[in-house]
Specification:
By secondary structure, the protein is of the alpha+beta class. It contains six helices and 15 strands. InterPro entries: Glyas_Bleomycin-R_OHBP_Dase, PhnB-like.
Length: about 300
């Protein structure tokens, strides 16, 4: 059962992007989860009054949240979404999986930018990396049938710029905070671009039933993590929320409305598991705006 959710920052295009992803992603659908109130908004939020606040996109039982807001942040390839097309999930096997991958690629790449051409690579018979027209990055891969099963969708963290060569440190930290278990862990045998020998070429960890990949960039890049893509973790009660918040938050000025930035620059939203119920309470939005760490009893 999915617990970790990826949140994508949209520039007032939440509903439009939700419809795009519902069409582009296999078995996709979308729904508006919440809307901005019509009063009690901060000045910069007033143009969004009554519009969608969060839009949920569902793909094969996993959900992505689109946060409809202003132009403050933009997604970039430091966090991409990896889609695993596993032939064992298709009645037609590898040919059916490949056809589904190619069809998804065609839709996601329309109006976007190709970062790695769709083709054959040493690690996959079919792989490509694309940034779509909403600046969200996707890695599409034909999964090796011999490998361990992974979810269809996994957030993929690329450590570059100021976070270069810190992927191993991050994996160890997330294992400690979330009790995550380690999957693959492959290192660079020799220096490759900015990646040092021994840096992480590819790794993945499981947070409950959710998987996250992490790697150090092998090419120079001038971007790193921002709130344009954030990871949301629901907590069962205030005690767990306090523990996870205290373990992750490393940038006091980034703390706002349940958002934080960890020591690697990755943005997280640490929220109560019953966030939907809390936000339905009178003046809940106003109460949330006054908080940094979310306090359940103050909604």
């Amino acid at each position: 059962m999915q617990k970790l959710r990826v949140n994508l920052w949209m520039h007032g295009t939440g509903e439009e992007a939700g419809e795009f992803y519902a069409d582009a992603l296999p078995g996709g659908s979308m729904e508006v989860e919440s809307r901005y109130p019509t009063e009690g908004l901060l000045e910069f939020q007033k143009p969004l009054a009554g519009q969608a606040l969060t839009v949920a996109v569902s793909v094969r039982g996993q959900r992505i949240t689109l946060v409809n807001a202003g132009p403050d942040f933009t997604p970039n390839p430091s966090i991409s979404l990896m889609l695993n097309f596993d032939p064992t999930d298709y009645e037609g096997g590898i040919e059916a999986a490949r056809a589904d991958l190619d069809a998804t690629w065609a839709k996601l790449s329309a109006g976007g930018q190709v970062l790695m051409e769709l083709g054959e690579y040493p690690y996959s018979a079919r792989y490509g990396w694309v940034q779509d027209k909403y600046n969200v990055s996707w890695q599409l891969i034909l999964t090796d049938q011999e490998g361990d099963p992974r979810p269809f969708l996994m957030p993929s963290l690329l450590f570059g710029g100021p976070a270069q060569n810190r992927a191993a440190e991050a994996v160890a930290h997330y294992k400690e905070v979330f009790g995550a278990r380690e999957g693959m862990f492959v290192t660079y045998p020799e220096p490759t671009g900015p990646a040092a020998a021994g840096a992480v070429m590819f790794s993945d960890i499981a947070l409950d039933d959710d998987w996250v990949t992490a790697m150090d960039s092998g090419v120079e890049q001038d971007f790193s993590f921002t709130p344009g893509v954030s990871l949301e973790w629901p907590c069962d009660g205030q005690e767990e929320l306090d523990r996870v918040w205290d373990a992750l938050s490393a940038v006091p000025e980034a703390e706002q409305c349940g958002w934080l930035a960890d020591k690697f620059g990755v943005s997280w939203q640490i929220v109560p598991a019953n966030m939907g119920e809390l936000m339905s309470r009178p003046k809940a939005f106003e109460h949330m705006l006054a908080m940094k760490k979310l306090v359940i009893d103050e909604f």
